Backbone:
């Protein structure tokens, strides 16, 4: 049974999420020469659309999506999408990086905690588990984690017995474990004091290393795969359980 964000003790304010979708999708070319990666079809639905199933399930109210590559196709989708009145589209002429998008849209979340999700992942992860752990209040950022068969290609975390992240390395040459960043974070407003004033600025390389001792992690379970290469895109079509 899933753990609803609201039933997990959310404070009653509007629950907001960033859905990061502005990447070029270069590893998925030539498919992404003509379609943004967030819209590649999985079982006849755009990849990004599965995220809104999760947001419906876990009580997210409003979503900001950043755009860059072929933005008009995304605008067209959300012109008639069931979430069209609850989505803010933010175009980036120059990519700001994952943390840069969040920093430059602080007004979207104000002083409330929020979610950050990477749209190029396909997942049915339990967002409520991440939020429930975040509510303990001992972390600026609570990271969803999963066991990956490709640890050299991911950010790898080491946890203590309390679920705090005591070590994190982005794409390590010699991974200490297979416990990887799932690209789903619950974040407190204190993050804005940590994000550098630079462009681009990335969570994995530029922000998370500054948060050692101030992060928590929780395994999200379920299915999660980065739809980032032709091999993985083909695998998703076979393995996605829905």
Residues:
């Amino acid at each position: 049974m899933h753990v609803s964000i609201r039933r997990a003790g959310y404070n009653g304010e509007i629950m907001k999420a960033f859905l990061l979708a502005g990447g070029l999708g270069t590893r998925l070319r030539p498919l992404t020469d003509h379609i943004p990666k967030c819209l590649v079809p999985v079982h006849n639905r755009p990849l990004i659309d599965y995220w809104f199933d999760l947001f419906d399930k876990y009580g997210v109210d409003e979503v900001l999506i950043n755009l860059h590559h072929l933005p008009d196709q995304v605008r067209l989708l959300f012109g008639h999408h069931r979430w069209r009145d609850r989505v803010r589209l933010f175009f980036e002429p120059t990519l700001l990086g994952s943390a840069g998008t969040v920093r430059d849209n602080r007004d979207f979340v104000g002083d409330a905690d929020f979610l950050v999700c990477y749209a190029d992942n396909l997942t049915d992860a339990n967002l409520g588990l991440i939020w429930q752990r975040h509510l303990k209040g001992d972390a600026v950022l609570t990271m969803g984690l999963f066991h990956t068969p490709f640890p050299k290609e991911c950010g790898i975390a080491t946890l203590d017995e309390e679920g705090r992240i005591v070590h994190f390395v982005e794409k390590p040459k010699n991974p200490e474990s297979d416990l990887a960043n799932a690209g789903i974070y619950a974040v407190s407003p204190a993050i804005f004091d940590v994000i550098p004033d630079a462009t681009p600025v990335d969570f994995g390389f530029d922000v998370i290393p500054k948060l050692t001792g101030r992060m928590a992690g929780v395994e999200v379970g379920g299915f999660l795969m980065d739809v980032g290469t032709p091999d993985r895109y083909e695998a998703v079509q076979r393995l996605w359980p829905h």
Summary: The first helix runs from residue 49 to 58. The chain is about 20% helix and 25% strand.
